[in-house]
Amino acid sequence: MSSAAVLEKPPVTAPAPLPPSLPGRPTAGAAAPITLRVDRLNLSYGTKQALFDVSLDIIERKVTAFIGPSGCGKSTLLRCFNRMNDLVDGVRLDGRVLLGGQDIFAPAVDVIELRKRVGMVFQKSNPFPKSIYENVAYGLRIAGVTSKSQLDEVVERSLQRAALWDEAKDRLHDSALGLSGGQQQRLCIARAIAVEPEVILMDEPCSALDPIATAKIEELIVTLREQFTIVIVTHNMQQAARVSDRTAFFYLGKLIEYADTGDIFTRPANPQTEAYVSGRFG
Amino acid sequence: MSESHLTQSTNPGTRLRQIFRRGDHLLWMSGGAMGLAMLLIAGLLGLVFVSGFTYFWPHEVTAADRADGTKLLGRITDQQPGHRDAGGQVIKTAQIQFRIGNRELYGFDFVWVPTAELGNFRTLPDVVQLERQEYGDFLGFLKRVESADGARVEGPAGWDLLLSRQPVARELAARASRLQRDDIGAVNYQIQKAKLRLTVAQRRAGPNGRVPSELQGAVDAELSRLNADYERLRAESAALLKQATAWQAVFTTIDGQEKKVPLASIVRAFRPNAMTVTEKVRHYLSRAAEFVYGEPRESNTEGGVFPAIFGTVMMTILMSLVVTPFGIVAAFYLREYAKQGPVVRIVRIAINNLAGVPSIVFGVFGLGFFVYFIGGGIDRMFFPEMLPTPTFGTGGILWASLTLALLTVPVVIVATEESIAAVPRGAREGSLALGASKFQTILKIVLPASVPGILTGVILAMARGAGEVAPLMITGVVKLAPEMPFDAHFPFLHLDRKFMHLGFHIYDVGFQSPNIEAAKPMVFTTTLLLIGIVILLNLAAIRLRDRIRKKYQTGVF
Ligand SMILES: Nc1ncnc2c1ncn2[C@@H]1O[C@H](COP(=O)(O)OP(=O)(O)OP(=O)(O)O)[C@@H](O)[C@H]1O
Ligand SMILES: [Mg+2]
Question: Among A146, A177, B52, B167, whose Cα sits 20 to 30 Å from the Cα of B232?
């Protein structure tokens, strides 16, 4: 972790001038601070191109939803934001992703620091086979925190924020694998927010859950918006409409339309978007 | 027609086709193969169990008359039926095998006698069987017990006296030999060390130099003190021995020869034909205990195998201590860090195929590399004053363990690699997404999750290593080790020492001993013990694995 490699955490710098080709319409507050800026990103897995010239801005403390038919590149784009694609062999990309104005693909960037600032919740809940407490404390422990009182405090606060405290407080030292699916997913959210990231990426966090658990997570997302910038991938139109402020529609690796959620669902500019959100294809 | 689809056809051709379609023939084949394998294993274990477990049981001793008027006393150990050809001509006569004992009188333990020459079979209640310190078993009848100062006791009183005096005499003899081995051994050790100090000083002073006189004086004083100790202990031990051999028993064999046996050299005396079942059980247990805890006698064909048990267990544990970290580290490198490609694939194939290399080849490698190269190097660097007598430059338990570790490391590597690969990707990604480095993820997520699989590999490696004999024969196992690799002398653990091993013991007793027929049951018993030890070590490792697995599942670390 050399100092050069650490992404420093600046207050949002004045956004660079938007490329003219940006397909999104400006939001209501045009001066909204931008957390993540994707700038003409192309990505291919080997010879297969998965993202074509994608440019968009993720706005701070808003929920941004990615929608689109299966295989259109939503997860791929999401996994660019914390460089999880680094783990895949044969990925090539060009273009830039700026986090607080800094290119996260720059060679000097420390991936570990990046991932501490950009947390992720996966489609399939993946608690570690450890106790509930250790799951939440994991991020801090690997960052070198050993103080018991600090860990206790963070675990409690994170579980509370993930709306899991009441259910888990009596069994903190039991295995996390004994939780229900929905509880496990909330645990994963608690684990992600324990390290105080700026951005939380969620890849279909409710796809394996029943409606009640889904409702709980959605409620949680709405409250988390106060503190975090959230990007969520979902196949559920109602969910996107309920929880998100901004929605991006992708099709075959291209960003088709990006606008306020209300606009996307009520008066989409693009006929493909309209067809998709009204359920006529996809 | 529509109903006939649901019932089985009676047409044989159709039935056969149905059978093939359902895959029943494959089911039968795999079931049959498994049954055959089980049968062979059960047969092997059954043979070992039956032969191994009955060895200590006191068997009935039979007396018989031969046609030529001589008499025979012994245990019937085998019978062969006769054969005649179609014309009634005898091709092979029926015969009976007796274990007659009394090796020093007859020259052999066993005789085959044609059944036709034998008659008047009887079991005499007063037959005495002796298990002796030397010459194996004795069979005969007690005549009297006598002492060096002329006391003589005959008849039933003599037998009672024998039974009461024998343990005393044996205890005295044991004390004498302990004195010999431990106390005199310790004095010898100190004498050697004192002399060594002189040698070292001499060498340091150079060929023309003189040893400092105060050192010379100190060593001389110490040596004279030690020599006095030595003489005193020698006298003490001789006195004990004289006391121990004061009583002896006089026996007659069935053919009238007289034989004197000092009580101290009788390990056990019993009358097999007059024993009750309780007495037999007690006899059995006492012999089994001696077998496990005792020292070998009679070039390993009698007595116990404790040093071999100890050597086997210690070598297996040493080997596991080496092979486990080594195998784990190698597997993690291969799976997590090495760039997957043709090189890694070749390495992996090579590792898998190491299992096909004859184990003796590993032994040769161990001898050349560990013993001569590394051991020789250690000797030249650290023990030059001992040369040309090698310290580490000769076979020893450390080198044997390392050789076996090399032999079994593929097992651990393969098992570890497989269990690493089985760790769900979600867990890894979850850890990485929280900002853990690859190393932290491996240490905190992947390693704990693969511990059960790794331990399975270690268990297999232990089982393989504990039963291996060939490579040990040239890297440190001996027929009879004078000292154990672990004892009361500093530094307690003597990794340079040669050791005994049950597997080698089996080979040695079964194929190298002068009296193979007599040693045969011992082979089975030792095999049984070796299997028992391997199972025990495995059970310990399995328990450990289950505890870790449970811990891992409940996640309380
Ligand atoms: N590891 C990979 N290797 C090769 N191709 C991949 C890989 N991951 C994704 N792809 C391809 O990239 C394209 C985009 O995949 P991605 O997972 O981003 O789709 P998605 O929009 O998330 O779909 P879904 O809604 O089904 O999750 C797909 O065509 C997919 O086949
Ligand atoms: Mg996806």
Answer: B167
CATH class assigned to B308-502:
mainly alpha
Q: Which of B503, B56, B110 is nearest to B316 (CA)?
A: B503
Strands B247-252 and B258-262: antiparallel
Q: Is the pTM of this model over 0.80?
A: no
Q: Show residues of chain B in contact with A128, CB under 8 Å.
A: 427, 430-431, 445, 555
Asked whether the beta carbons of A232 and A244 are under 8 A apart, the reply is yes
Per 3-state DSSP, chain A is made up of helix, strand and coil in percentages (nearest 5) of: 35, 25, 40
Going by their DSSP bridges, the two strands B266-270 and B128-132 should be labelled as antiparallel
Of B382, B274, B214, the closest CA to residue B58 belongs to: B274
Cis peptide before A205 (omega within 30 of 0): no
Q: Token match 């062999």: residue?
A: A89
DSSP label at B305? -
Profile chain B (557 residues) by mean pLDDT over runs of 10 residues.
Answer: 61 80 84 92 86 83 89 89 82 87 85 88 90 86 87 86 88 85 82 83 76 82 88 88 86 89 88 90 88 77 82 90 93 88 90 86 89 82 72 82 92 92 89 91 90 87 87 85 71 77 86 76 85 85 81 55
Is B341 near chain A, with CB under 8 Å? no
The Cα B441–Cα A101 span in angstroms is 29
- ipTM for the predicted complex: 0.85
CA of A57 to the centre of ligand 1 (A): 22
Give the whole-angstrom CA distance, residue A126 versus residue B429. Answer: 9
Per CB-CB distance under 8 Å, the chain B contacts of A176 are 555
Residues whose Cβ atom is located within 5 A of ion ligand 2: A 75
Q: What is the DSSP letter of B389?
A: S
Question: Which residues numbered 214-243 in A keep a CB inside 8 Å of some CB on B?
Answer: none
Cis peptide before B388 (omega within 30 of 0): yes
Q: Which two tokens stand for residue B361?
A: 């080849």
Q: Where are the domains of chain B?
A: 62-122, 152-270, 308-502
How does DSSP assign B132-165, residue by residue? ESSSSEEEEEEEEEEETTS-EEEHHHHHHHHHHH
Q: Which atom of ligand 1 is nearest to the CA of A48?
A: 5
